[in-house]
Design brief:
The complex is a heterotrimer.
Chain A: H1 4-22, H2 27-43, H3 45-61, H4 67-85, H5 104-135, H6 141-156, H7 159-165, H8 177-212
Helix pairs in contact in A: 1-2, 3-4, 6-8
Chain B: H1 2-24, H2 32-48, H3 59-70, E1 76-82, H4 88-104, E2 108-113, H5 118-133, E3 143-148, H6 153-159, H7 163-166, E4 193-198, H8 204-215, E5 222-223, H9 228-231, E6 243-244, H10 245-259, H11 269-303
Parallel strand pairs in B: 1-2, 1-4, 2-3, 4-5, 5-6
Helix pairs in contact in B: 1-2, 1-11, 2-11, 4-5, 4-10, 6-8, 10-11
Chain C: H1 2-27, E1 42-48, E2 57-62, E3 73-80, E4 86-91, E5 97-100, E6 108-117, E7 120-123, E8 130-131, H2 142-163, H3 174-177, H4 179-189, E9 193-198, H5 205-224, E10 228-232, H6 235-251, E11 263-265, H7 270-284, E12 288-294, H8 298-308, E13 312-317, H9 323-329, E14 332-335, H10 337-347, H11 350-382, H12 388-399
Parallel strand pairs in C: 9-10, 9-12, 10-11, 12-13, 13-14
Antiparallel strand pairs in C: 1-2, 2-5, 3-4, 3-6, 6-7, 6-8
Helix pairs in contact in C: 2-11, 4-5, 5-6, 5-10, 7-8, 10-11, 11-12
Classes of the chains: A mainly alpha, B alpha/beta, C alpha/beta.
Chain lengths: ~220, ~300, ~400
């Protein structure tokens, strides 16, 4: 029973969502099912938040290794939660906007979360460099083509590309590096992307079919017997 | 002084790269922290000494610019801020450039986000661009902020049929029925152009799939560089053009400055960021060359 | 004298107003200036939008002869049978079509088009009444429906065929073959296995695929008595992953080995999550890192950190933009569809393997469509071969939706 009900729900919702594409009267039902998930997902936040607090509280309580980081997590979590829930610092009252100028949540968002997130994202620049150093080696013919394409794109995505090849005649402008970069993106890259996307699309349909038919139920926590 | 700083930094960077290149002839891999150090120095130098390059707009960016130019004043343009602070440095300049361009052309703009983290950034644009640079723009008549709604693709699925179902009110709690900009807008199909800005999911791709295609609404996305290749399959039919990363934003800013000289003095962060990006690309290319030298040397030694 | 002037003025005003009113009546204009109005739009036709749920009426008209030089745009007016016309939408010059999706079904509406000029608006004649009705089936998507049947039919056909005992060949997938070896390595080294199911929620099919693979991985982990660590960024994934791991431990006969804290919620925030995972990697130095699911900009940050700690790494995603990063930094990468095939592949269940075989039919159709379409288009454009036109029409009918 514990498995049959979720399988039934999956089969029903999946079938309705597919049919709503082809049968207009079912469209509204399809939209409603999409909204149901969002509602459930919002409530599921309590599960996640609860787990976060429990795990870190236990870590601090038992003085496990690196428990100091858990204190930071708990303090940050509580501060953000309280300033958002009670709309601290901003326009008074529950009707005030949580993101209004001066609200603590907005201030912390702009001055703490934004720079921290940007810093993490900026790490990509470093990792791209180290990964490129390792990956782009002319080990064989294919790798050499990849290496040349990488150079074209790297140059084409900067003004240097035009500086280096801007002198090329208009009739041969395809050989200007920025145009070559666009060509690489639009032709070989696009062809590869599309083939992967077609494969992905077919894979998604086959997997969805397995889920709707109840053949694959590992996601419910169990074997497919 | 600045020039001296740039020269010293360049000597240090290129001298260092040359030294590493010579070292790589031994066939030994270099520590990744050295790579990190060079990337850091090249970016920091360009930021500190404000190294700038001239931008040459590409066709794919120009198409977006021309589309906004060709719309008659009063056209309805929606800009969606579907990004977070992490993506902000890369795509926020696009959002501000779009807003400037639309307002200077007299278009009506609708601002919204399907990312919770996008709301504060959307409001930043309202405060720093609309209110400061276009003080005559009237809320509700020239622009409106719908704010954030949870639900991701679900939101798009609903606004393609009816905005009011998902957004009964704007960000400030005013009923859409009492906002002049919504007098003639029932659904996203009633818009003349949609400019989704972002790079995650849900993001520009979902706008194309759930709004552009079914609603026959022109879409011109602004994208983080890393996801731009994913949207190329949709260009030029489903996406009329696109801005990819800082480079795309810089091209757009330079076009805006060329066509509207009044924007010469407004900040152009993307143009400024192209200096560091160019330097970082040079360093990465140098390290790819070094990596290959190391590889071939070590292979030869292996053969010996 | 004053009376004469006053009389003259009154007469002038009357003349102007009568002439303007006459023009209004004659041309249906709204403006009261005597300057010429743009020519009105013609042949306004309103009709039910076919193949929908009765919410849309399509309105078509012929452009004003003054479009685009002398007009500013069009206004669409709508009225019920005996009601007054209301303006419902302003459109740009050049437009000749409008879909009114704000109608009640079964109520008749009529439409009029106004052409906006510098001096006012000239109105077209009224359209016939139109009623929005719903249809049971969207024939505009008949070809998608057909392909769905062909594809799903082939999948089900192969499943039945596999159930009847027919041997099916499935090519080896390196990344999945290496899973057991990767878990074994972690066991030998006494270090945990890190499983990252992407950063999207359970409504994303990639996350579902990751959770199905998790079931198999957790089973091997339970068998080997190794440790698994799984930080997640979505609450629903937390519950699903816990259930999956618990079930795997139970089916391995080691329910006592399961611990709820194996799965831990971190944050929904993308880079907050990445920071936490990177921290776990650097502190705990897992021997094996599995990145399976939907990844974005964090893919390279995670994979490079994993690479720097010397972990054996297996990744899989259906997002083509992230695949190059994983290929560069990981030992094995499941590319696109391989991620979705993983659960069937690992289960070794003939029924599920049959579904993989069914996928190939879809691929054959796609390849056939691509080849024929490209050849026909090339022949048509490059050499203007007339016979190719019907092939192009056929391909359009088969593969394009309205």
């Amino acid at each position: 029973m514990k498995k049959q009900i979720p399988i039934l729900i999956t089969a029903t919702v999946g079938t309705v969502l597919v049919l709503s594409v082809f049968f207009p009267p079912a469209k509204m039902l399809g939209e409603d099912f999409s909204l149901f998930f969002d509602i459930i997902a919002v409530f599921a936040f309590f599960l996640g938040g609860g787990n976060l607090v429990r795990v870190h509280f236990i870590k601090v309580y038992r003085r496990k290794s690196d428990w100091v980081y858990s204190v930071v997590t708990l303090v940050g979590f509580t501060m953000m939660l309280a300033s958002g829930l009670f709309k601290l610092g901003g326009p008074p009252g529950i009707s005030g906007s949580v993101t209004a100028d001066g609200s603590y949540l907005n201030t912390m968002f702009i001055h703490i979360i934004a720079p921290l997130s940007s810093t993490m994202y900026a790490l990509l620049a470093f990792f791209v460099a180290s990964a490129s150093y390792r990956a782009f080696r002319a080990k064989n013919r294919e790798a050499t083509i990849l290496l040349i394409a990488a150079f074209v794109i790297l140059l084409g995505r900067t003004p240097l590309g035009m500086m280096a090849t801007g002198w090329v005649w208009e009739s041969l402008s395809i050989f200007q590096i920025p145009n070559l970069a666009v060509w690489v993106m639009n032709v070989p890259n696009l062809a590869g992307q599309r083939s992967i996307l077609i494969g992905v699309g077919l894979g998604v349909v086959a997997m969805s079919l397995r889920l709707i038919l109840g053949m694959d139920r590992t996601y419910l926590g169990g074997d497919n017997d | 002084m600045t020039n001296i700083g740039v020269i010293i930094s360049m000597v240090f960077i290129f001298g260092g790269l040359l030294a590493i290149m010579i070292y790589s002839l031994r066939g030994k891999d270099i520590d990744r922290r050295i790579i990190f150090l060079f990337v850091f120095i090249s970016v920091a130098t360009s930021v500190i000494f404000n190294v700038e390059f001239k931008e040459y707009p590409t066709v794919i960016v120009k198409k977006v610019f021309d589309k906004i130019e060709s719309l008659p004043p009063g056209s309805k343009v929606l800009i969606s801020f579907d990004f977070d602070p992490a993506m902000k440095p890369e795509v926020f300049p696009m959002a501000n450039a779009f807003v400037r361009h639309c307002l200077v052309k007299g278009h009506k703009i609708y601002l919204m986000t399907i990312w919770a983290t996008g709301q504060a950034l959307m409001n930043e644009t309202v405060e720093t661009v609309i209110k400061e640079e276009f003080p005559d723009a009237v809320y509700g008549e020239d622009y409106v902020t719908l704010g954030f709604k949870a639900g991701g693709v679900g939101v798009l699925n609903v606004i393609i049929t009816d905005f009011r179902k998902m957004y009964p009110t704007d960000e400030h709690g005013t009923s859409l029925d009492s906002i002049p900009l919504f007098a003639e807008v029932k659904s996203a199909k009633d818009l003349d152009l949609v400019l989704p800005i972002g790079g995650g999911q849900p993001g520009p791709k979902e706008w194309i799939l759930f709004i552009g295609d079914p609603g026959d609404v022109p879409i011109a996305p602004g994208l983080a560089a890393v996801v731009a290749p994913l949207i190329y399959p949709y260009y030029p039919k489903q996406a009329i053009g696109l801005l990819g990363g800082v480079k795309g934003a810089a091209e757009y800013e330079s076009l805006l400055r060329q066509v509207y000289p009044q924007f010469q003095d407004v900040p152009a962060p993307a143009l400024r960021m192209m200096g560091p990006q160019t330097m970082a690309h040079i360093v990465i290319m140098a390290f790819i060359v070094i990596g290959n030298i190391t590889y071939f040397r070590s292979r030869r030694r292996g053969a010996e | 004298m004053l009376n004469r002037v006053l009389l003259l003025c009154l007469a002038l005003v009357w003349t102007v107003s009568v002439s303007v009113t006459a023009q209004d009546v004659a041309e249906g204009g709204i403006d009261t200036l005597s300057l010429p109005l743009p020519a009105p739009a013609q042949n306004v036709v309103a009709a039910n939008h076919v193949y929908d749920d009765g919410e849309v009426i399509d309105v078509n008209w012929d452009k004003s002869p003054d479009d685009p030089e002398n007009i500013l745009g069009y206004i669409v007016y709508r009225a019920e049978t005996d009601g007054a016309f209301d303006s419902i939408r302003t459109l740009l010059p050049g437009e000749t079509f409008f879909s009114d999706d704000n109608v009640e079904d079964e109520i008749p509406y009529k439409y009029q088009i106004g052409v906006i000029g510098e001096n006012g608006v000239s109105l077209s004649g009224e359209s016939e009444l139109a009623v929005a009705t719903w249809e049971l089936f969207n024939f505009g998507m008949w070809n998608t429906f057909l392909w769905m049947f062909v594809f799903c039919g082939s999948v089900i056909g192969f499943i039945i065929s596999a159930k009847s005992g027919r041997k099916l060949y499935i090519r080896k997938i390196g990344g999945l073959e290496a899973l057991e070896e990767a878990v074994g390595r972690a066991t030998e080294m006494g270090r945990p296995i890190l499983f990252i199911p992407g950063i999207l929620d359970m409504d994303d099919v990639q996350t579902l695929a990751a959770i199905t693979i998790l079931g198999k991985v957790a089973r091997v982990v339970a068998d080997y008595d190794s440790k698994i660590r799984m930080p997640v960024s979505r609450s629903l994934v937390l519950t699903a992953a816990r259930e999956t791991i618990k079930e795997s431990y139970t089916s391995a006969g080691r329910p006592d080995g399961y611990n709820e804290d194996m799965v831990q919620y971190v944050t929904d925030e993308q880079f907050g999550y990445v920071a936490a995972v990177n921290g776990i990697m650097v502190r705990e130095k897992p021997a094996t890192c599995l990145y399976l699911g939907a990844f974005f900009a964090e893919s390279l940050i995670l994979a490079e950190t994993g690479n720097s700690i010397g972990a054996i790494q297996i990744a899989g995603t259906a997002r083509p933009g992230q695949l190059p990063f994983f290929v560069a930094a990981c030992d094995y990468t499941l590319i696109g569809e391989e991620l979705f095939a993983a659960s069937a592949y690992l289960s070794e269940d003939p029924k599920q393997l049959g579904s993989l075989k069914g996928q190939d039919v879809g691929k054959v159709i796609a390849m056939f469509g691509l080849l024929v379409g490209t050849a026909a288009m090339t022949l048509s454009v490059a050499w203007q071969v007339p016979a190719t036109q019907w092939i192009l029409d056929l391909m359009n009918n088969l593969f394009t939706t309205n």
